[in-house]
Amino acid sequence: MNPQELDTINQAAAEASKPRKPLTPEERAKRLAQAYARTQGMSEYNYETILTYYFRQGFTEEEVLPRVTVLTENAWKHLGRIVEKDAEPCIITLWPKNRKTGERYARPCSVYHLSQTKVA
Fold first, then answer.
1. Beta bridge partners of 92
2. Which of 74, 84, 107, 116 is the most buried (most CB within 10 A)?
């Protein structure tokens, strides 16, 4: 790793560790809309798993919208929310590509419903 790459990484780490101001409801809605727009046309492979899991928990179709009201813990953090301590996740399977070989591999991922989060 050259010094320039190391400097870039250190700058990114410093930015990430800065305290963030709380998002306004308008900013939060805007980020959510942007996140939803980025997902359009993406795989719906795990939708059935997510819907089945939350329907068994008593949620309705209007309440369970994958990639809108059901997101990963990191996605909720970016939207200014934190997952509650005792929240039970829905486990889905992601199939990312190996960067070296290009082959896909299975990786479990936890997703949480909006009701399992609170404002940070």
1. 109
2. 116
